[in-house]
Design goal:
about 200 residues; mainly beta; five-stranded mixed β-sheet; rod-shaped
C-alpha cells in the first residue's frame, strides 16, 4: 500500500512541476508593394505567428512622428497618405492572456505622381572641331534620386552623367537629348542643339 501511494505521489509531482510550453510571438506583415502614390491605399496582410498559444489582438501604429494613428485589430484596411514622404507602419502582436508580444515595423515610401525628375543640361551652343565639349548634367529629382542618364548626342549614345566629347567634323544644328530616370522609374527628357565649326 505504501508503494502504491509513493508512485501516485511521484506522478503527481511530475505533472505539477512540468513547465508550460514557451510561447513565442513573431509579429510581421507584408504589403503588396514598397512604393505608393499619394492617396493610394496600402494593401497589408498580417503574417504574424504565435507558437503554443493564439494571436489575441494587434496594435497598428502608422503615419509620421508628428501625426501618428493607432488602430486595434488583427487586420487593417484603409491606410493611405496624403503627402509624399517616408512613413513608418508598426505592428505589435499579442498572444492570448498576456502570454507574450512582439513588434515589427517597416518604412513605406509615398511619392507624388507629378514629382518626376526634371531633365536639364548645359553645354556651349558653339564648339570647334577637335576641342573637348562637356555636356554637364543639371537634372534634379526630389524623391528617389536619378539613377539612369541616357544621352543621344547627334546619334552617339552615352550612359554617363556628364559626358565629355570631341568632334572631328563640323555639324550644324546637331540635336542633343538627355533622358533621365529616377529610382522609381519616372523619367523626363530635355533637348537642345549645338553647332560644331572648324
Amino acid at each position: 500500500m505504501k508503494r502504491i501511494a509513493f508512485i501516485a505521489f511521484a506522478l503527481t509531482a511530475v505533472v505539477c512541476c512540468s513547465k508550460a510550453p514557451v510561447v513565442k510571438v513573431t509579429a510581421s506583415f507584408t504589403t503588396n508593394k514598397d512604393v505608393y502614390q499619394v492617396g493610394e491605399e496600402l494593401i497589408i496582410e498580417n503574417t504574424s505567428t504565435v507558437e503554443n498559444n493564439i494571436l489575441a489582438f494587434c496594435k497598428w501604429e502608422y503615419g509620421s512622428e508628428e501625426g501618428k494613428n493607432v488602430f486595434y485589430g488583427l487586420d487593417i484596411e484603409g491606410i493611405s497618405f496624403d503627402a509624399p514622404g517616408l512613413y513608418k507602419v508598426e505592428l505589435t502582436a499579442y498572444a492570448e492572456q498576456g502570454a507574450g508580444q512582439d513588434t515589427y515595423s517597416r518604412q513605406i515610401m509615398v511619392i507624388d505622381e507629378n514629382d518626376k525628375p526634371w531633365a536639364y543640361f548645359e553645354c556651349p551652343a558653339l564648339a570647334r572641331v577637335g576641342e573637348e565639349v562637356l555636356f554637364e548634367d543639371k537634372s534634379v529629382d526630389n524623391i528617389g534620386g536619378i539613377s539612369v542618364w541616357n544621352w543621344d548626342i547627334g546619334g552617339v549614345v552615352s550612359p554617363y552623367q556628364s559626358p565629355l566629347m570631341v568632334f572631328d567634323a563640323p555639324v550644324t544644328g546637331m540635336v542633343v537629348t538627355l533622358t533621365v530616370t529616377d529610382s522609381f522609374g519616372a523619367s523626363d527628357s530635355f533637348t537642345r542643339t549645338i553647332d560644331i565649326t572648324n
